[in-house]
Amino acid sequence: MNKEVKLRRAIKDDWEKIYKLYNSLSDEDLYLRFFHLYRITEEDAKKIASGGDHITYLAEVDGKVVGEATLHMDGEFSLVVDREYRNLGIGTMLVKQLIEEAKRLGLKVIKFYTLPENTPMIKIGKKLGFKIRFDEDEVYAEMNLREEKEMEVIAD
Ligand SMILES: CC(C)(COP(=O)(O)OP(=O)(O)OC[C@H]1O[C@@H](n2cnc3c(N)ncnc32)[C@H](O)[C@@H]1OP(=O)(O)O)[C@@H](O)C(=O)NCCC(=O)NCCS
């Protein structure tokens, strides 16, 4: 894609753009994003945009929000990319950004859950070094963010 993809923290005023992105998603996308089928309300979009107990990053192309990724303080995150902008590396960029954010916040782990058939998400996890556990109907992936520091202490 020739167009520039911009990643930035969501702010309160973004709620309408987030609401628009979510309204453009299929039932399947919503299921993968929330782990159940859910059409978000304007209030939900406002909560996503305003943070507080979570940090949300948006991917924008020409001012249009084409991706959203939210990190919770227990290290769990989830994301979604507009179908028309998939397979361009935006999902990978968003997850990399959340890993940096989690490190900055001093979180111990960063993790996600997904379904075994979600090949793109599993590929992202593997590529970025998450440890992945495959169960029958769920995939759990985590990355320990303190390992390096703990090893440094042991080495001292
Ligand atoms: C998962 C998701 C965010 C990935 O977004 P994306 O912008 O397409 O991700 P990327 O472009 O970084 O691609 C990720 C990898 O999947 C691969 N991929 C994309 N679509 C694929 C497909 N249909 N089959 C196999 N691989 C695919 C890409 O080639 C890429 O592989 P690479 O890293 O080896 O190059 C997006 O598919 C999505 O929004 N899905 C619905 C919601 C969801 O599943 N969220 C995850 C909840 S934890």
UniProtKB/TrEMBL annotation:
<feature type="domain" description="N-acetyltransferase">
    <location>
        <begin position="5"/>
        <end position="152"/>
    </location>
</feature>
<dbReference type="InterPro" id="IPR016181">
    <property type="entry name" value="Acyl_CoA_acyltransferase"/>
</dbReference>
<dbReference type="InterPro" id="IPR000182">
    <property type="entry name" value="GNAT_dom"/>
</dbReference>
<dbReference type="Pfam" id="PF00583">
    <property type="entry name" value="Acetyltransf_1"/>
</dbReference>
<dbReference type="InterPro" id="IPR050276">
    <property type="entry name" value="MshD_Acetyltransferase"/>
</dbReference>
<protein>
    <submittedName>
        <fullName>N-acetyltransferase</fullName>
    </submittedName>
</protein>
<dbReference type="GO" id="GO:0016747">
    <property type="term" value="F:acyltransferase activity, transferring groups other than amino-acyl groups"/>
</dbReference>
